[in-house]
Amino acid sequence: xxxxxxxxxxxxxxxxxxxxxxxxxxxxxxxxxxxxxxxxxxxxxxxxxxxxxxxxxxxxxxxxxxxxxxxxxxxxxxxxxxxxxxxxxxxxxxxxxxxxxxxxxxxxxxxxxxxxxxxxxxxxxxxxxxxxxxxxxxxxxxxxxxxxxxxxxxxxxxxxxxxxxxxxxxxxxxxxxxxxxxxxxxxxxxxxxxxxxxxxxxxxxxxxxxxxxxxxxxxxxxxxxxxxxxxxxxxxxxxxxxxxxxxxxxxxxxxxxxxxxxxxxxxxxxxxxxxxxxxxxxxxxxxxxxxxxxxxxxxxxxxxxxxxxxxxxxxxxxxxxxxxxxxxxxxxxxxxxxxxxxxxxxxxxxxxxxxxxxxxxxxxxxxxxxxxxxxxxxxxxxxxxxxxxxxxxxxxxxxxxxxxxxxxxxxxxxxxxxxxxxxxxxxxxxxxxxxxxxxxxxxxxxxxxxxxxxxxxxxxxxxxxxxxxxxxxxxxxxxxxxxxxxxxx
Length: 489
Fold this sequence. Notes:
Serine Threonine Protein Phosphatase 5, Tetratricopeptide repeat, single chain, elongated, mainly alpha
């Protein structure tokens, strides 16, 4: 009698929603009473909404294990996909519901289901969610642990590492995941460049799962993978090591962890950029309109500089070409070009603390770039970019004093015959101008274009980077006896 009353109540609950109510609509609205009533009426539980979504999709979407059980026991098809290729299994995997994933698999859901037209598998989806039970169930039901999607050539192991799921990484490796697999190398789709262009194409892709862990700075993922035999020095398509990748993302603790595990600090990418150069570049990152990752790692960047030098990082390793810019429209800093050393990068930003560390470890102040720039010229302001270059004028002056103390010629010019005084005038750094003149800088030295420091301070130029007139610097130079060298008409 009680059963009859309950069934009648369920029937009336369904009827109250109207004759047109479908199982999919009931599940979408989380009306489980109506859904149960429909199942008792032998309604078509596989009936789909216009986009192909069924009641089972919705039950999985709402993480309702009881509803999934009800639908499966009543004959719902666990492999039905909507028009986007999504099945209930892929929905449950994406939500990280291990219990529902296992239930669907036991009901006949295909563990090799693809969730996107590009070949993302349900195992990749589960790995991204981080649910160990879901991943384990899929593996036990025949999911291909090394399947690659076609868009980026990425695997479930890469997904897990990229999302910082160390337990899933460990499980995948135990089930035969191949850490040697590389993501697809991609063209950067840049237009063809002239031989004279300063912009250099950058190879992309060729990443292992370990590179993804380095990008995220996940030490536990890194530890699991290294314990499994991952090559700590594997490089990507551009020759970039996991050590450099971690530093470029300001994960200095992860970088220190890699050093402690034996990472080679002197591996250079296609531009000659090493870990040491990278940390100096990131701690002195130029200001930009683009957002920058905060330097909030527990390990201070200067401590990483020390650690790299202590582990044998070469302080005299030079760039082979300038680094890429931070956006597709930015060619990068062409002044810091081939020949630039870590010491020059530090000097350019007035990073005198790092300069002292580098010099103590044998940094050579006499090296020059392909354009003839040296550490003294960079410290004085050659290549300075207004509102971009990091470091205060007082920092720059301190850095300059260090370089002058190394015995460098204060009047040595670069290939354009720009001297330190030209650089200081370009920056509008009056304290540096005064210091240089006191140290014997020639007031009226001319560049190959005929410009004196006074010309530069006045804003005269024929270069692409337009200088900014600095009235106080002009007045100071005139007071010191400087002369104009060339008129611009």
